[in-house]
Design goal:
The complex is a heterodimer of chains A (about 240) and B (about 280).
Chain A: H1 2-19, H2 23-56, H3 62-72, H4 77-88, H5 103-139, H6 144-154, H7 156-172, H8 175-181, H9 191-200, H10 204-236
Helix pairs in contact in A: 1-10, 2-5, 2-6, 2-7, 3-5, 4-5, 4-8, 5-6, 5-7, 5-8, 7-10, 9-10
Chain B: H1 2-23, E1 28-34, H2 35-39, H3 42-54, E2 57-63, H4 65-73, E3 79-82, H5 85-93, E4 101-113, H6 126-135, E5 140-142, H7 148-159, E6 172-174, H8 179-189, E7 192-196, H9 197-202, E8 209-213, E9 220-227, H10 238-249, H11 251-259, E10 261-262, E11 265-266, E12 269-270
Parallel strand pairs in B: 1-2, 1-3, 5-6, 5-7
Antiparallel strand pairs in B: 3-9, 4-7, 4-8, 4-9, 4-12, 10-11
Chain lengths: ~240, ~280
């Protein structure tokens, strides 16, 4: 009974926050999107070409790189956060940049976290595509850049899912952004760290309400991408 | 179409990322503080007064006292605001801090289930209460995170003549988390814990928990503030840090602390002018 009551309270809180466009909530949601989308953009810029290159080109240690990328998909966020924290700390090698406890630090940490995911999944997609296009690319004598661009372009439907997996991981993690961002009110507080804070304050309905909004947000991003992808398919067919 | 959308999304993300530094160029200091001051809502109540007066925003990173001190030792904060006097004095003695100023106090309380199966409550002696909890092998939730509250708790066990970490029976549970998490755990499992009064008063998920022991002199909890030493870390904002510390111990800052109440109950008591605090 207590639990049912709490869920009802959480729903009421969530609707109230959204309905009144609570300014704190709008700021937190905005920062969450800004941080995670920037991290995904960075991870895609690095991870997609990297994954395609590992799939398409033979080089010494290629197998090891592929295994490493797969293994790094499971990097614990709190470990990534700790490493980035030590690098960005004033006493660390990149301390002079003064990036610790800023949104940039959070973007860096999330990008480190999800680049292996994007690269490893892209590698698999491109490897499958190579069975189809490998011969053709060899015949036309495509150079390395052209090969990668062609393969990524042909695989874009699956690669969108790859990038979404990265976004899901980034927007859901709390361990890394808590450490490198510091959960500073109005500056580095995002959805997940706000949920952690409200939980520790014992305000479970508010924490759960924020959690529901986070899930709804993730749903909205995925739905938007699905619409775009369907249009793309319709155009191709 | 998709490719164009994707490129557009990348560009939008880059623009978003680019707008962040512009927003972050306000005048601010970073304060390493404890979960008890942040979770209790004190900072949210008093900091706007300071910012309005000086134009200096205060960015609070809330950690356990041990972690907050470590953060300041690395030069990642301009001001340290914690509650464990011996550690604070060591921080200054080692040259990391300029000087320590007492700011305010509150007290710790032993909370536990209303039924009090260990019979810890109903008497004012905290050492006796802990001894009864240990004798009954009742669940005790320890912060276990090297925070000020955790250090105070371990010192209290010592006065009770008990070493809970080696005691048999698995009733002593060190969770390695903040005050809120410890209270949530105690509430969910019917355990006992030591909490600072500020966090307890503002805590919403008490369920069956009650204050069982309070008022013992050994439960006193003093907070101190220390500007990080610019001689050690040239990048710290010495002038703005000084302004913040001066305000905290000023009549105005002390009044703001005294005025912070939840349901009429004061959470912290200013005592900047008390010698030796």
């Amino acid at each position: 009974m207590v639990t049912m009551h709490e869920f009802a309270g959480a729903f009421a809180t969530a609707f109230h926050l959204i309905g009144t466009l609570d300014p704190d909530l709008v700021g937190i949601v905005g920062l969450s999107l800004r941080v995670s989308l920037s991290a995904v953009a960075l991870a895609a810029l690095i991870g997609l070409p990297l994954g395609a290159a590992v799939a398409a080109f033979d080089f010494p240690g290629r197998r090891a790189v592929a295994v490493l990328l797969n293994a790094m998909m499971g990097l614990p966020p709190v470990v990534v956060g700790l490493i980035v924290y030590l690098l960005l700390s004033r006493s660390g090698p990149l301390g002079v940049l003064g990036l610790l406890f800023t949104p940039e630090a959070m973007i860096i940490a999330q990008a480190v976290l999800i680049t292996p995911i994007v690269a490893a999944l892209a590698r698999q997609t491109v490897e499958d595509l190579l069975l189809e296009y490998g011969e053709l690319l060899r015949v036309v004598g495509a150079g390395p850049v052209r090969t990668i661009v062609t393969l990524l372009s042909e695989g874009r439907a699956s690669l969108v899912t790859t990038v979404l997996a990265g976004f899901g991981r980034a927007s859901a993690e709390v361990g890394a952004v808590m450490i490198v961002g510091g959960n500073i009110d109005q500056v580095t507080r995002v959805m997940t760290t706000a949920i952690a804070l409200e939980t520790s304050r014992g305000d479970l309905p508010l924490a759960l309400g924020l959690g529901m909004i986070l899930i709804a947000l993730s749903l909205a991003v995925n739905a938007a991408v699905a619409v775009v992808r369907d249009r793309d398919r319709a155009r191709v067919l | 179409m998709l490719r164009r959308t994707f490129v557009a999304a990348l560009a939008a993300a880059a623009v978003l990322a680019g707008t962040i530094p512009a927003a972050a160029q306000e005048r601010f200091i970073t304060v390493a503080s404890t979960t008890s001051t942040a979770d209790s809502g004190l900072f949210g109540a008093i900091l706007p007064h300071f910012t309005r007066k000086t134009g200096i925003a205060v960015r609070v990173v809330a950690r356990g006292t041990g972690q907050a001190i470590d953060m300041a030792r690395r030069g990642d904060a301009d001001v340290l605001f914690v509650h464990h006097k011996p550690s604070e004095e060591a921080f200054v003695a080692e040259g990391f801090g300029v000087e320590r100023r007492p700011v305010m106090y509150n007290d710790f309380v032993i909370v536990g289930p209303a039924a009090d199966p260990a019979g810890a409550g109903g008497q004012p002696d905290v050492a006796r209460a802990l001894a009864r909890i240990a004798a009954a092998k009742a669940d005790f939730i320890s912060r276990g995170d090297d925070s000020g509250t955790n250090k105070a708790e371990l010192a209290l066990w010592k006065t009770a003549g008990i070493d809970p970490k080696t005691a048999p029976g698995g009733w002593y549970k060190a969770i390695g988390q903040g005050m809120g998490a410890a209270l949530n755990t105690a509430a969910a499992t019917g355990g006992y814990t030591l909490s600072d009064r500020g966090t307890w008063i503002s805590f919403r998920n008490r369920r069956d928990l009650r204050i069982l022991v309070e008022g013992d002199q050994r439960l006193f909890n003093q907070y101190g503030v220390i500007p990080v030493n610019p001689a050690k870390f040239p990048h710290v904002k010495a002038q703005d840090s000084r302004a913040f510390v001066d305000w905290l111990v000023s009549a105005e800052g002390q009044q703001a602390i005294a005025d912070y109440r939840i349901e009429g109950e004061a959470l912290f008591f200013p005592n900047a002018n008390e010698p030796g605090a």
